[in-house]
Amino acid sequence: MTDTAVRVEPAARRSLVAPRREWLLGYAFILPAFFFVFGLIVYPAAWGLYFAFTDKVVGMPDTFVGLKNFFWVITWPDFGYMILHTLTLVVVAVAVKAIVGLTMALALNENLPLRSLARGLLFLPWTVPTFVAGLVWKWLYDDQNGLFNWALLGLNVIDHPIPWLGMAATAMPAIISVVVWKGFPFFAIAYLAGLSAIPNEQYEAAEVDGANALQRFRYITLPGLRHVILITIMLSTIWTSNTFDLVYLMTGGGPSNATEVFTLLTFQLGIQNGRIGDAATIPLMLLPFFATLIIILTRYMMSQEEA
């Protein structure tokens, strides 16, 4: 009995020590990621939340002011235009990116010549640095030396240069075109991956039953890409609404605040004028919108999976 107890005790001890080692090893791997997330997301977000309720100005002590900053932003004369410009940019750009991306994905999913090369070229707009893209497109739209005016004048389409970025009627469409050019590859790549997951047998069976191309697209392709479409639209909505660099490089919010979006106003208040409290208020006001969007889409996807 004694020998058996001696032999069993070390085995039992090892069985208790092994899970503890795995537990410690797991926390050791998680710890760097925790500090990374805390340092780059949680800590700045907490300070931004605090500053939104203060009158913090660079170089001056802050004082708690409650909702004063929020009322100031709402009553700012161009606040309504800023929201309208941001919504216009987001709605139009995301819709066009989704349509163009889906069209490209459907085309590149077919057995076309040089399909691999075309798929590679599809990545180029997405890989170009935003700073470079903004400067290049600003030159293309330039009213004196831009390629667009040069080509249109050479084709006798126009008789004088058009200040694309200098007119309120054309400045926002010009920015939207660049945002679409820069972002549609994300949709195309995601949709290509989604199309590859749809079994070909479904298309073959539908074709045998007499379904035309439009019917196959409506009843097979779209349902198969439903979750991918929802996720890409949600992510692109968040990214597009935070567009700053392209607007800043191409128009700086002009002309006459025709392209003023909330990210640019945040930059002007916080970086240029040093009004940290007012600058922190604007992103915080849009946080409920993004949170609601994410919650609604997440619950919808979960309900579809359960069904």
Characterize the structure shown.
The chain has 14 helices and no strands. The protein is globular. It folds into 2 domains: 35 residues; 181 residues, MetI-like (MetI-like fold, Orthogonal Bundle), CATH 1.10.3720.10. The protein has 307 residues and is mainly alpha-helical. α1 crosses α14, α2 packs across α14 and α8 runs antiparallel to α11. Helix content is 76%, strand content 0%.
* Helix-strand topology string: HHHHHHHHHHHHHH
What would CATH call the homologous superfamily of the largest domain?
Answer: MetI-like
The percent range for strand residues is under 5%
| Straight-line distance between termini | 58 Å
* Overall morphology: globular
Low-confidence spans: none
Largest beta-sheet details: none
CATH class of the largest domain: Mainly Alpha
The helix tally amounts to 14
Classify the helix fraction into a percent range.
over 70%
Summarize model confidence as the mean pLDDT: 86
How many domains make up the 3D coordinates? 2
How many extended strands?
0
CATH architecture name of the largest domain:
Orthogonal Bundle
CATH topology of the largest domain: MetI-like fold
Cα-based radius of gyration, to the nearest Å: 27 Å
Structural class: mainly alpha
What keywords describe this structure?
MetI-like fold, 307 residues, mainly alpha, 2 domains
Brief overview, please?
The chain has 307 residues and is an all-alpha fold.
